[in-house]
Amino acid sequence: MTTLVHGSDTLTRDALTVLQPGFVGTTAPDWLLRRIGEGLSSVGLFGRNIVDPGQLAALTAQLRAERDDVLVAIDEEGGDVTRLEVKQGSSFPGNYALGSVDDVELTRAVARELGRRLVQCGVDLNWAPSADVNSNAENPVIGVRSFGPDPDLVARHTVAYVDGLQGVGVAACTKHFPGHGDTNVDSHDALPRIDVDLATLHARELVPFRAAVAAGTKAVMSAHILLSALDPHRPATLSPQILTGLLRQELGFEGLIVTDGMEMQAVAATYGIERGSVLAIAAGADAICVGGGLCDEDTVLQLRDALVSAVRTGELPEERLADAAARVRALAAWTQAHRARGGAESVPGAAVQEGTAPGADIGLVAARRALRVTRGEHPHTPMTDAPYVASFTPVANFAVGDETPWGIAAELERLLPGTETGSYDESSADAVLAAAGERRIVAVVRDAHRHPWMTRALDGLLAARPDTVVVEMGLNEAEPRGALHIATHGAARVCGRAAAEAVVGTGA
Which of 209, 390, 421, 458 has its CA 20 to 30 Å from the CA of residue 321? Predict the structure, then answer.
Protein backbone atom coordinates (compact mmCIF):
# COMPACT_ATOMS: atom_id res chain seq x y z
CA MET A 1 0.00 0.00 0.00
CA THR A 2 3.02 2.29 0.23
CA THR A 3 2.87 5.29 -2.07
CA LEU A 4 5.71 7.82 -2.16
CA VAL A 5 4.50 11.41 -2.11
CA HIS A 6 6.18 14.63 -3.02
CA GLY A 7 5.29 18.25 -2.49
CA SER A 8 4.16 20.20 0.58
CA ASP A 9 0.46 20.19 -0.40
CA THR A 10 0.34 16.40 -0.62
CA LEU A 11 2.35 16.10 2.57
CA THR A 12 -0.01 18.41 4.43
CA ARG A 13 -3.05 16.51 3.13
CA ASP A 14 -1.54 13.22 4.28
CA ALA A 15 -0.85 14.69 7.70
CA LEU A 16 -4.47 15.80 7.99
CA THR A 17 -5.72 12.48 6.65
CA VAL A 18 -4.26 10.48 9.53
CA LEU A 19 -5.96 12.57 12.23
CA GLN A 20 -9.27 11.59 13.86
CA PRO A 21 -10.16 14.72 15.86
CA GLY A 22 -13.18 15.62 17.92
CA PHE A 23 -14.96 18.95 18.22
CA VAL A 24 -17.45 20.77 20.42
CA GLY A 25 -21.08 21.26 19.41
CA THR A 26 -24.01 19.50 17.81
CA THR A 27 -23.30 21.00 14.40
CA ALA A 28 -19.96 21.03 12.62
CA PRO A 29 -17.94 24.21 13.31
CA ASP A 30 -16.60 26.15 10.34
CA TRP A 31 -12.99 25.27 11.14
CA LEU A 32 -13.77 21.56 10.95
CA LEU A 33 -15.52 21.84 7.59
CA ARG A 34 -12.61 23.89 6.27
CA ARG A 35 -10.05 21.26 7.36
CA ILE A 36 -12.16 18.49 5.82
CA GLY A 37 -11.94 20.40 2.57
CA GLU A 38 -8.17 20.54 2.98
CA GLY A 39 -7.75 16.79 3.49
CA LEU A 40 -9.02 15.81 6.94
CA SER A 41 -10.55 12.38 6.36
CA SER A 42 -11.99 11.40 9.74
CA VAL A 43 -14.01 12.93 12.55
CA GLY A 44 -14.62 11.45 16.00
CA LEU A 45 -17.94 11.92 17.77
CA PHE A 46 -18.52 11.97 21.53
CA GLY A 47 -21.53 12.37 23.77
CA ARG A 48 -21.25 16.15 23.67
CA ASN A 49 -22.00 16.06 19.93
CA ILE A 50 -25.24 14.06 20.15
CA VAL A 51 -28.78 15.00 21.13
CA ASP A 52 -30.90 12.44 19.31
CA PRO A 53 -30.80 10.31 16.14
CA GLY A 54 -32.30 13.00 13.94
CA GLN A 55 -29.78 15.61 15.02
CA LEU A 56 -26.92 13.14 14.62
CA ALA A 57 -28.04 12.22 11.11
CA ALA A 58 -28.15 15.91 10.21
CA LEU A 59 -24.65 16.40 11.62
CA THR A 60 -23.14 13.53 9.63
CA ALA A 61 -24.94 14.75 6.49
CA GLN A 62 -23.38 18.18 7.08
CA LEU A 63 -19.92 16.59 7.27
CA ARG A 64 -20.46 14.57 4.09
CA ALA A 65 -21.76 17.56 2.20
CA GLU A 66 -18.20 18.83 2.53
CA ARG A 67 -16.63 15.49 1.61
CA ASP A 68 -18.67 12.40 0.84
CA ASP A 69 -16.02 9.88 1.89
CA VAL A 70 -15.27 11.30 5.35
CA LEU A 71 -15.03 8.64 8.05
CA VAL A 72 -17.34 9.38 10.98
CA ALA A 73 -16.16 7.49 14.06
CA ILE A 74 -17.74 7.00 17.47
CA ASP A 75 -16.97 5.28 20.76
CA GLU A 76 -20.21 3.28 21.04
CA GLU A 77 -19.61 0.08 22.96
CA GLY A 78 -23.14 -0.21 24.27
CA GLY A 79 -23.53 -1.01 27.94
CA ASP A 80 -21.73 1.39 30.25
CA VAL A 81 -19.94 3.22 27.43
CA THR A 82 -22.51 4.87 25.19
CA ARG A 83 -22.47 8.04 23.14
CA LEU A 84 -25.70 7.52 21.18
CA GLU A 85 -27.67 7.48 24.44
CA VAL A 86 -25.33 9.35 26.72
CA LYS A 87 -28.18 11.14 28.53
CA GLN A 88 -30.54 8.15 28.78
CA GLY A 89 -28.41 5.04 29.18
CA SER A 90 -27.90 2.40 26.53
CA SER A 91 -30.57 0.23 24.92
CA PHE A 92 -27.94 -2.52 24.73
CA PRO A 93 -26.13 -4.41 27.48
CA GLY A 94 -22.36 -4.31 27.32
CA ASN A 95 -19.77 -7.00 26.72
CA TYR A 96 -19.76 -8.49 30.23
CA ALA A 97 -23.48 -9.18 30.03
CA LEU A 98 -23.13 -10.76 26.60
CA GLY A 99 -20.19 -12.85 27.72
CA SER A 100 -22.12 -14.07 30.76
CA VAL A 101 -24.88 -15.38 28.47
CA ASP A 102 -22.24 -16.84 26.12
CA ASP A 103 -24.50 -17.08 23.07
CA VAL A 104 -22.48 -15.85 20.09
CA GLU A 105 -25.61 -15.50 17.97
CA LEU A 106 -27.08 -13.16 20.57
CA THR A 107 -23.88 -11.12 20.60
CA ARG A 108 -23.91 -10.96 16.80
CA ALA A 109 -27.56 -9.84 16.81
CA VAL A 110 -26.90 -7.12 19.39
CA ALA A 111 -23.92 -5.80 17.43
CA ARG A 112 -25.89 -5.90 14.20
CA GLU A 113 -28.77 -3.90 15.66
CA LEU A 114 -26.36 -1.39 17.19
CA GLY A 115 -24.59 -1.13 13.85
CA ARG A 116 -27.89 -0.62 12.04
CA ARG A 117 -28.65 2.35 14.26
CA LEU A 118 -25.19 3.79 13.65
CA VAL A 119 -25.62 3.41 9.88
CA GLN A 120 -28.98 5.17 9.96
CA CYS A 121 -27.31 8.07 11.76
CA GLY A 122 -24.47 8.22 9.22
CA VAL A 123 -21.74 6.77 11.49
CA ASP A 124 -19.47 4.22 9.81
CA LEU A 125 -16.51 3.51 12.14
CA ASN A 126 -17.09 2.26 15.67
CA TRP A 127 -14.21 2.23 18.15
CA ALA A 128 -15.46 -1.14 19.42
CA PRO A 129 -15.50 -3.92 20.49
CA SER A 130 -13.21 -4.22 23.50
CA ALA A 131 -11.31 -7.50 23.10
CA ASP A 132 -9.50 -7.16 26.42
CA VAL A 133 -9.38 -10.27 28.59
CA ASN A 134 -10.37 -8.95 32.02
CA SER A 135 -7.98 -11.15 33.97
CA ASN A 136 -7.55 -8.59 36.77
CA ALA A 137 -10.74 -8.06 38.78
CA GLU A 138 -9.23 -4.86 40.22
CA ASN A 139 -9.02 -3.27 36.76
CA PRO A 140 -10.46 0.25 37.12
CA VAL A 141 -11.12 0.98 33.44
CA ILE A 142 -12.01 -2.28 31.63
CA GLY A 143 -14.22 -4.36 33.93
CA VAL A 144 -17.68 -4.81 32.40
CA ARG A 145 -16.37 -3.53 29.06
CA SER A 146 -14.74 -6.94 28.62
CA PHE A 147 -16.62 -10.09 27.64
CA GLY A 148 -14.93 -11.81 30.57
CA PRO A 149 -11.74 -13.36 31.98
CA ASP A 150 -11.51 -16.36 29.64
CA PRO A 151 -9.50 -15.74 26.44
CA ASP A 152 -11.47 -18.19 24.29
CA LEU A 153 -14.81 -16.75 25.38
CA VAL A 154 -13.59 -13.23 24.69
CA ALA A 155 -12.28 -14.35 21.28
CA ARG A 156 -15.54 -15.92 20.06
CA HIS A 157 -17.65 -12.96 21.19
CA THR A 158 -15.22 -10.45 19.72
CA VAL A 159 -15.54 -12.23 16.37
CA ALA A 160 -19.35 -12.25 16.64
CA TYR A 161 -19.37 -8.53 17.46
CA VAL A 162 -17.08 -7.69 14.55
CA ASP A 163 -19.30 -9.75 12.23
CA GLY A 164 -22.43 -8.02 13.47
CA LEU A 165 -21.09 -4.51 12.99
CA GLN A 166 -19.37 -5.08 9.66
CA GLY A 167 -22.28 -7.03 8.26
CA VAL A 168 -24.28 -3.80 8.15
CA GLY A 169 -21.42 -1.65 6.91
CA VAL A 170 -19.92 -0.27 10.13
CA ALA A 171 -16.17 -0.81 10.40
CA ALA A 172 -15.23 -2.44 13.69
CA CYS A 173 -12.18 -1.20 15.61
CA THR A 174 -11.09 -3.99 17.94
CA LYS A 175 -9.37 -2.63 21.06
CA HIS A 176 -7.18 -2.17 23.15
CA PHE A 177 -4.26 -3.98 21.48
CA PRO A 178 -2.40 -5.93 22.72
CA GLY A 179 -4.72 -6.16 25.74
CA HIS A 180 -5.63 -3.82 28.62
CA GLY A 181 -7.25 -6.42 30.87
CA ASP A 182 -4.46 -7.21 33.33
CA THR A 183 -3.95 -3.67 34.61
CA ASN A 184 -4.83 -1.90 37.84
CA VAL A 185 -4.13 1.59 36.45
CA ASP A 186 -6.37 3.60 34.12
CA SER A 187 -4.34 4.77 31.09
CA HIS A 188 -6.38 7.98 31.08
CA ASP A 189 -4.53 8.85 34.28
CA ALA A 190 -1.10 7.18 34.07
CA LEU A 191 0.88 4.52 32.20
CA PRO A 192 -0.22 0.99 33.12
CA ARG A 193 2.38 -1.75 33.07
CA ILE A 194 1.92 -5.48 32.48
CA ASP A 195 4.86 -7.62 33.56
CA VAL A 196 4.07 -11.13 32.38
CA ASP A 197 6.08 -13.37 30.09
CA LEU A 198 5.57 -13.82 26.37
CA ALA A 199 3.94 -17.21 26.81
CA THR A 200 1.24 -15.68 29.00
CA LEU A 201 0.64 -12.82 26.58
CA HIS A 202 0.20 -15.22 23.67
CA ALA A 203 -2.03 -17.57 25.64
CA ARG A 204 -4.19 -14.82 27.13
CA GLU A 205 -4.06 -11.21 25.86
CA LEU A 206 -3.43 -11.96 22.19
CA VAL A 207 -5.99 -14.74 21.67
CA PRO A 208 -8.97 -12.43 20.96
CA PHE A 209 -6.91 -10.17 18.70
CA ARG A 210 -5.68 -13.07 16.60
CA ALA A 211 -9.30 -14.14 16.21
CA ALA A 212 -10.44 -10.63 15.30
CA VAL A 213 -7.71 -10.27 12.67
CA ALA A 214 -8.65 -13.64 11.20
CA ALA A 215 -12.30 -12.54 11.16
CA GLY A 216 -11.43 -9.45 9.14
CA THR A 217 -11.77 -6.60 11.61
CA LYS A 218 -11.26 -3.42 9.60
CA ALA A 219 -9.41 -1.58 12.36
CA VAL A 220 -7.51 -2.22 15.58
CA MET A 221 -6.98 0.34 18.34
CA SER A 222 -3.70 0.36 20.23
CA ALA A 223 -3.42 0.64 24.00
CA HIS A 224 -1.27 3.07 25.96
CA ILE A 225 0.20 0.30 28.10
CA LEU A 226 3.74 -0.92 28.68
CA LEU A 227 4.24 -4.65 28.15
CA SER A 228 7.80 -5.28 29.23
CA ALA A 229 8.06 -8.66 27.50
CA LEU A 230 7.29 -7.04 24.15
CA ASP A 231 8.89 -3.61 24.55
CA PRO A 232 10.38 -2.55 27.90
CA HIS A 233 10.77 1.07 26.85
CA ARG A 234 7.70 2.36 25.00
CA PRO A 235 3.95 1.86 25.41
CA ALA A 236 2.26 -0.20 22.72
CA THR A 237 0.95 2.84 20.83
CA LEU A 238 4.51 4.06 20.28
CA SER A 239 6.23 0.70 19.84
CA PRO A 240 7.43 -0.51 16.40
CA GLN A 241 7.96 -3.98 17.91
CA ILE A 242 4.28 -4.18 18.90
CA LEU A 243 2.46 -2.34 16.09
CA THR A 244 4.65 -3.33 13.15
CA GLY A 245 6.45 -6.42 14.37
CA LEU A 246 3.62 -8.12 16.26
CA LEU A 247 0.37 -6.77 14.80
CA ARG A 248 1.40 -6.30 11.18
CA GLN A 249 4.04 -8.96 10.61
CA GLU A 250 3.23 -11.74 13.08
CA LEU A 251 -0.56 -11.45 13.22
CA GLY A 252 -0.80 -10.40 9.57
CA PHE A 253 -3.14 -7.44 10.09
CA GLU A 254 -3.49 -5.26 6.98
CA GLY A 255 -6.25 -2.90 8.11
CA LEU A 256 -6.21 0.45 9.91
CA ILE A 257 -4.31 0.83 13.18
CA VAL A 258 -5.87 3.59 15.29
CA THR A 259 -4.34 4.97 18.48
CA ASP A 260 -6.27 5.37 21.67
CA GLY A 261 -6.77 9.02 22.65
CA MET A 262 -3.43 10.78 22.40
CA GLU A 263 -4.31 13.26 25.15
CA MET A 264 -4.54 10.44 27.69
CA GLN A 265 -1.91 10.87 30.39
CA ALA A 266 -0.22 7.53 29.71
CA VAL A 267 1.27 9.16 26.59
CA ALA A 268 0.69 12.88 26.94
CA ALA A 269 2.36 13.23 30.34
CA THR A 270 5.63 11.68 29.14
CA TYR A 271 5.87 12.40 25.42
CA GLY A 272 3.35 15.18 24.77
CA ILE A 273 0.69 14.78 22.10
CA GLU A 274 2.81 16.15 19.25
CA ARG A 275 5.84 13.93 19.74
CA GLY A 276 3.57 11.07 20.77
CA SER A 277 1.70 11.34 17.47
CA VAL A 278 4.91 11.35 15.43
CA LEU A 279 6.22 8.33 17.30
CA ALA A 280 2.91 6.50 16.88
CA ILE A 281 2.85 6.94 13.10
CA ALA A 282 6.51 5.99 12.89
CA ALA A 283 5.79 2.86 14.95
CA GLY A 284 3.08 1.73 12.54
CA ALA A 285 -0.14 3.48 13.58
CA ASP A 286 -2.23 4.90 10.74
CA ALA A 287 -4.69 7.18 12.53
CA ILE A 288 -4.34 9.45 15.54
CA CYS A 289 -7.38 9.57 17.78
CA VAL A 290 -7.67 12.86 19.67
CA GLY A 291 -10.67 14.78 20.86
CA GLY A 292 -11.99 13.25 24.04
CA GLY A 293 -10.43 16.15 25.89
CA LEU A 294 -8.57 18.29 23.34
CA CYS A 295 -11.15 19.12 20.70
CA ASP A 296 -10.25 22.40 19.03
CA GLU A 297 -8.69 23.58 15.79
CA ASP A 298 -5.36 24.42 17.42
CA THR A 299 -4.88 20.77 18.40
CA VAL A 300 -5.49 19.64 14.82
CA LEU A 301 -3.05 22.20 13.46
CA GLN A 302 -0.39 21.34 16.05
CA LEU A 303 -0.55 17.65 15.19
CA ARG A 304 -0.63 18.31 11.46
CA ASP A 305 2.40 20.57 11.66
CA ALA A 306 4.27 18.16 13.94
CA LEU A 307 3.85 15.36 11.39
CA VAL A 308 4.89 17.56 8.47
CA SER A 309 7.92 18.82 10.36
CA ALA A 310 8.93 15.28 11.32
CA VAL A 311 8.89 14.24 7.66
CA ARG A 312 10.93 17.25 6.62
CA THR A 313 13.56 16.65 9.30
CA GLY A 314 13.77 12.96 8.47
CA GLU A 315 12.43 11.74 11.81
CA LEU A 316 9.32 10.29 10.14
CA PRO A 317 9.77 8.59 6.74
CA GLU A 318 7.58 10.21 4.10
CA GLU A 319 6.53 6.81 2.79
CA ARG A 320 5.34 5.76 6.28
CA LEU A 321 3.01 8.77 6.50
CA ALA A 322 1.83 8.13 2.94
CA ASP A 323 1.14 4.49 3.76
CA ALA A 324 -0.86 5.49 6.85
CA ALA A 325 -2.91 7.98 4.83
CA ALA A 326 -3.55 5.35 2.15
CA ARG A 327 -4.93 2.95 4.76
CA VAL A 328 -7.30 5.64 6.05
CA ARG A 329 -8.54 6.28 2.51
CA ALA A 330 -8.94 2.57 1.87
CA LEU A 331 -11.21 2.20 4.89
CA ALA A 332 -13.15 5.29 3.87
CA ALA A 333 -13.68 3.75 0.45
CA TRP A 334 -14.96 0.52 2.04
CA THR A 335 -17.51 2.36 4.17
CA GLN A 336 -18.52 4.58 1.25
CA ALA A 337 -19.16 1.51 -0.89
CA HIS A 338 -21.35 0.03 1.84
CA ARG A 339 -23.37 3.24 2.07
CA ALA A 340 -23.87 3.19 -1.69
CA ARG A 341 -25.20 -0.39 -1.52
CA GLY A 342 -27.19 0.11 1.64
CA GLY A 343 -30.52 1.21 0.18
CA ALA A 344 -33.18 3.04 2.12
CA GLU A 345 -32.25 1.53 5.49
CA SER A 346 -28.78 3.09 5.32
CA VAL A 347 -29.87 6.60 4.38
CA PRO A 348 -28.83 9.07 7.10
CA GLY A 349 -31.89 10.86 8.43
CA ALA A 350 -34.16 7.84 8.47
CA ALA A 351 -36.21 7.70 11.65
CA VAL A 352 -34.72 5.64 14.47
CA GLN A 353 -37.23 4.81 17.16
CA GLU A 354 -36.69 2.14 19.76
CA GLY A 355 -39.07 -0.74 19.34
CA THR A 356 -40.11 -0.04 15.75
CA ALA A 357 -37.34 -1.67 13.71
CA PRO A 358 -36.80 -5.40 13.28
CA GLY A 359 -34.80 -6.69 16.23
CA ALA A 360 -34.97 -3.36 18.03
CA ASP A 361 -35.79 -5.04 21.36
CA ILE A 362 -32.78 -7.35 21.16
CA GLY A 363 -30.95 -5.29 23.79
CA LEU A 364 -33.65 -5.86 26.40
CA VAL A 365 -33.85 -9.53 25.46
CA ALA A 366 -30.09 -9.82 26.03
CA ALA A 367 -30.22 -7.90 29.33
CA ARG A 368 -32.92 -10.22 30.66
CA ARG A 369 -30.93 -13.28 29.67
CA ALA A 370 -27.81 -11.88 31.37
CA LEU A 371 -29.55 -11.46 34.73
CA ARG A 372 -28.41 -13.75 37.55
CA VAL A 373 -30.76 -13.92 40.55
CA THR A 374 -29.71 -15.56 43.83
CA ARG A 375 -32.12 -15.95 46.75
CA GLY A 376 -30.71 -15.54 50.24
CA GLU A 377 -31.63 -17.17 53.54
CA HIS A 378 -34.13 -14.46 54.41
CA PRO A 379 -37.44 -15.03 52.58
CA HIS A 380 -38.03 -12.67 49.69
CA THR A 381 -41.41 -11.68 48.39
CA PRO A 382 -41.82 -9.59 45.24
CA MET A 383 -42.21 -5.91 46.01
CA THR A 384 -45.65 -4.43 45.54
CA ASP A 385 -45.15 -1.17 47.44
CA ALA A 386 -42.78 1.61 46.40
CA PRO A 387 -39.32 0.92 47.89
CA TYR A 388 -36.35 3.09 48.74
CA VAL A 389 -33.43 2.70 46.33
CA ALA A 390 -29.98 3.42 47.76
CA SER A 391 -27.42 3.78 44.98
CA PHE A 392 -23.82 3.47 46.15
CA THR A 393 -21.97 5.47 43.55
CA PRO A 394 -18.23 5.04 42.89
CA VAL A 395 -16.21 7.59 40.94
CA ALA A 396 -16.80 6.96 37.23
CA ASN A 397 -13.80 6.28 35.05
CA PHE A 398 -13.15 8.58 32.10
CA ALA A 399 -14.30 6.10 29.45
CA VAL A 400 -17.73 5.72 31.06
CA GLY A 401 -18.05 9.33 32.18
CA ASP A 402 -20.49 10.74 34.71
CA GLU A 403 -23.11 12.00 32.26
CA THR A 404 -24.83 8.69 31.68
CA PRO A 405 -27.44 7.69 34.27
CA TRP A 406 -27.31 4.22 35.76
CA GLY A 407 -29.15 2.19 38.37
CA ILE A 408 -32.69 0.87 38.63
CA ALA A 409 -34.57 3.68 40.41
CA ALA A 410 -36.15 5.10 37.24
CA GLU A 411 -37.30 1.67 36.11
CA LEU A 412 -38.68 0.81 39.56
CA GLU A 413 -40.52 4.14 39.61
CA ARG A 414 -42.18 3.13 36.35
CA LEU A 415 -43.30 -0.17 37.85
CA LEU A 416 -43.92 1.05 41.41
CA PRO A 417 -44.87 4.76 41.35
CA GLY A 418 -43.69 6.60 44.42
CA THR A 419 -40.30 4.88 44.55
CA GLU A 420 -37.78 7.14 46.26
CA THR A 421 -34.03 7.13 45.79
CA GLY A 422 -30.80 8.52 47.15
CA SER A 423 -27.19 8.46 45.96
CA TYR A 424 -24.43 7.66 48.44
CA ASP A 425 -20.67 8.13 48.18
CA GLU A 426 -18.78 6.41 50.99
CA SER A 427 -21.74 6.88 53.34
CA SER A 428 -22.69 4.61 56.21
CA ALA A 429 -25.76 2.42 56.47
CA ASP A 430 -27.25 4.77 59.05
CA ALA A 431 -27.89 7.47 56.45
CA VAL A 432 -29.70 5.01 54.21
CA LEU A 433 -31.80 3.59 57.04
CA ALA A 434 -32.85 7.07 58.14
CA ALA A 435 -33.86 8.05 54.60
CA ALA A 436 -35.68 4.79 53.89
CA GLY A 437 -37.91 4.81 56.95
CA GLU A 438 -40.33 1.89 56.77
CA ARG A 439 -39.86 1.29 53.05
CA ARG A 440 -38.12 -1.84 51.84
CA ILE A 441 -34.62 -1.11 50.62
CA VAL A 442 -32.99 -1.90 47.30
CA ALA A 443 -29.23 -1.37 47.55
CA VAL A 444 -27.54 -0.84 44.18
CA VAL A 445 -23.77 -1.27 43.96
CA ARG A 446 -21.18 -1.24 41.23
CA ASP A 447 -18.01 -3.34 41.64
CA ALA A 448 -18.62 -3.86 45.35
CA HIS A 449 -15.53 -6.07 45.53
CA ARG A 450 -13.31 -3.07 44.70
CA HIS A 451 -14.83 -0.67 47.23
CA PRO A 452 -14.54 -1.58 50.93
CA TRP A 453 -16.88 1.25 51.89
CA MET A 454 -19.67 -0.40 49.88
CA THR A 455 -19.09 -3.67 51.72
CA ARG A 456 -19.29 -1.89 55.08
CA ALA A 457 -22.51 -0.13 54.07
CA LEU A 458 -24.06 -3.43 52.96
CA ASP A 459 -22.98 -5.06 56.25
CA GLY A 460 -24.89 -2.42 58.18
CA LEU A 461 -27.96 -2.50 55.96
CA LEU A 462 -28.31 -6.28 55.98
CA ALA A 463 -27.80 -6.46 59.73
CA ALA A 464 -30.62 -3.98 60.31
CA ARG A 465 -32.84 -4.92 57.38
CA PRO A 466 -32.26 -8.51 56.21
CA ASP A 467 -35.06 -8.17 53.63
CA THR A 468 -32.85 -5.76 51.63
CA VAL A 469 -32.45 -6.54 47.94
CA VAL A 470 -28.91 -6.10 46.57
CA VAL A 471 -28.35 -5.30 42.91
CA GLU A 472 -24.77 -5.55 41.59
CA MET A 473 -24.35 -3.64 38.31
CA GLY A 474 -20.60 -4.07 37.90
CA LEU A 475 -18.34 -7.11 37.99
CA ASN A 476 -20.09 -9.90 39.88
CA GLU A 477 -17.08 -10.83 42.00
CA ALA A 478 -18.41 -10.50 45.55
CA GLU A 479 -20.45 -13.26 47.21
CA PRO A 480 -24.23 -12.85 46.71
CA ARG A 481 -25.85 -11.04 49.63
CA GLY A 482 -29.34 -9.95 50.57
CA ALA A 483 -32.77 -11.54 50.56
CA LEU A 484 -32.43 -11.31 46.80
CA HIS A 485 -29.16 -10.70 44.98
CA ILE A 486 -29.41 -9.59 41.38
CA ALA A 487 -26.33 -9.45 39.15
CA THR A 488 -26.98 -7.48 35.97
CA HIS A 489 -23.41 -7.72 34.56
CA GLY A 490 -23.48 -4.06 33.56
CA ALA A 491 -25.17 -0.73 34.21
CA ALA A 492 -26.92 -0.06 30.89
CA ARG A 493 -30.49 1.25 31.04
CA VAL A 494 -31.82 -2.09 29.81
CA CYS A 495 -29.91 -3.87 32.58
CA GLY A 496 -31.67 -1.64 35.09
CA ARG A 497 -35.02 -2.46 33.54
CA ALA A 498 -34.36 -6.20 33.71
CA ALA A 499 -33.33 -5.89 37.37
CA ALA A 500 -36.43 -3.86 38.23
CA GLU A 501 -38.60 -6.56 36.69
CA ALA A 502 -36.90 -9.12 38.92
CA VAL A 503 -37.46 -7.00 42.02
CA VAL A 504 -41.23 -6.82 41.45
CA GLY A 505 -41.41 -10.44 40.36
CA THR A 506 -42.22 -10.05 36.68
CA GLY A 507 -38.83 -11.08 35.34
CA ALA A 508 -37.41 -13.62 37.76
Answer: 209
